[in-house]
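Q: Predict the assembly, please.
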Amino acid sequence: MTVLLFTVLTLCVLGVLSAVVLYFVAQKFKVEEDPRIDEVEKMLPCANCGGCGFAGCRNMAEALVKRDDISDLFCPAAGAEVMKAIADYLGKAAPVKEPRVATVRCGGTCEKRPRTNAFDGAKSCAVAASLYVGETGCAYGCLGYGDCVTACRFDAIHINPETGLAEVDAEKCTACGACVTACPKGVIELRKKWPKQRAIFVSCVSKDKGAVVMKACKAGCIGCGKCAKVCEFGAITIENNLAFIDSDKCRLCRKCVNECPTGSITMIGLAPLPKEPKVAPAPKAAPAAPATPAAPATEKAEK
Amino acid sequence: MKTFPIGGIHPSDNKKWSKGSAIEVMALPDVVTIPLGQHIGAPAVAKVAKGDKVLTGQLIAEAASFMSANIHSPISGTVTAVDMQPNGQGLRQMMITIKREGDEWVEDIDRSETLVKECTLEPQAIIERIKAAGIVGMGGATFPTHVKLSVPPGKKADVLIINGVECEPYLTSDYRTMLEYGERMVVGVTILKRALGVEKAYIGVENNKPDAIKHLKALVAAEQGIEVVALKTQYPQGGEKQLIAAVTGREVPPPPGLPIDVGAVVCNASTTVAVYDAVQKNKPLIERVVTVTGKQVSAPKNLLTRMGTPIASLVELAGGLPEGDVKVLNGGPMMGRAMVNLSSPVTKGCSGITILSGAEVSRDVATACIKCAKCVSACPMALEPYYLSKLSRKGAWDVVEAHNITDCIECGSCQYTCPASLPLLDYIRLGKQTVMGRIRARAAAKK
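A: Predicted assembly structure:
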């Protein structure tokens, strides 16, 4: 009985002594921290995706609290509403950023871009890209081994086994940019997010000349420039045999879609413009005439 | 029997397919494509434009910096294009295309067969000639030879090692070169000795080539300070650092350490013949011996080929591609690179074309690492391949750098020996490339 008693007493005394020591130590080496950091961190999504440029949400919260000007800090995962709430809480001006969405700019499905060889190495885009051109004749397109899938923290990107291409789930995508960094081919781009997931983009990143592109892929951009000519908003540029639609300038008028001879301009969530009947068989008349200014007006109202 | 001290494997050498075929001079190609970057270092700068007439042996691209190499026209004719074209791996590269017209050579090239033994040039003049001839390491690493021979101040070479090991399975181009061009090679060795000012030269040959060893021993009997060393048949005996360790017992310090730090300079056997041609005959590096081999190949061959010849025409001469799925490798099965484009050209570093059937090369399904450490004992650089591979896969670049991933010579011994069939080297190579890039970026930022 006495053994038990002594044991309990010794432990109690030790406990009390340690508590006293710890209390004074804690007082002495206290780290003063702004309590608002904890609050802001709670408001952030705590996904630690790195989309803001910081290593984690805690670092972002610290920066939000400590910096006076937070206009260049934006959490893509949380979105504008949460950023507004955080800014209100901190009494600062809310950072404004248009919502964006990751877009896979490659339309080279298994059907349109035939496989010319089989890759037997480690199933990783980075490994394949470091070794050779890929399983198809195209040196630029999606390799389909899913480095972007591994990189995504939000389960928003997947490889479609039928097409062999990466596909983004626009609802889940937070535009954190992890897939953009992970893709060794630079196929993925963060583009302006339109309502109802509408989008128009050139689904090709090949810088090869037209003939080479055509040989490798039926859906490739050959850089013919027809789309750039028809665009009224100056959104389309042709560089290195490749058309690029600037998503900030594009107004979703859809004229370029009908012009594209290879169908490499992809349209999502929009009805195609009615193709105007070819008026004159003379090809020279084409560039100036084909504008059909009827349709786009209704779509513009969305914005 | 001498060998390197750490690691190594014993793959079946498979040299029997092509070792008996004497070197055949291939007919001149009608069209050649010459990549500007076929050596380590900066790509050469094109000196010709579309429409220019060139002669065989004429300089068509000039070394862009010290760490670069000249390129000469392998045929005479007209330049039809200087543009981006896919290389063997399908990646776009700047190339010069020349269409052949006749066979006219630059005048001061000596095309006679007579062996010129005497060389009285000063060391610096020898190096200048080698540099002008655009000679690079022909064993596959394509390191510019003049850079190797220009010993930096404060360092001193005391031994020259000629790499006639050819440890890569299947390939026999160096073997045939040593047998048939042995006399030229031995003169090449004396020239290299003179350029470096060393007393002693060794010719390292694996003992699976006894006739080459015998032949070379007979040739060097009359020479001073050249010794033929028979080495154990063990892969990667022909790795530069492994060869130095096997022959001299010296250990090259880790990168940025170089063989010259231990006083050694290693030069490949075919390169030594090219050095002879350049210095004694004024002939630039425009042709090389290429082995075309494989179990299913109907007529394996060793071909003396002009640079820029499409690989498809070599394959055609060897009986064409076998039926079914095949893997065509630029190089041997261990270090060769798989090709997707057979119209790509023979380059300075192309020692062989290995054609393997799909069944021979298909990989087993990778299972989990059981930490058996076979890869660790196989690694000739004393690295931990399973660890480097795993960390590279996770993108832990700082950690793999700290664990000396840049030491890796990419010999593939780890992957060969792995009982779990893990793609170890695939990830290590990726890690090494990334870390090298980061080191370069840091160095650039410092400047």
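The radius of gyration of chain B is 21 Å. Chain B touches chain A at residues 86, 89-92, 325, 337-338, 340-341, 361-363, 393, 423, 426-427, 429-430, 433 (CB under 8 Å).
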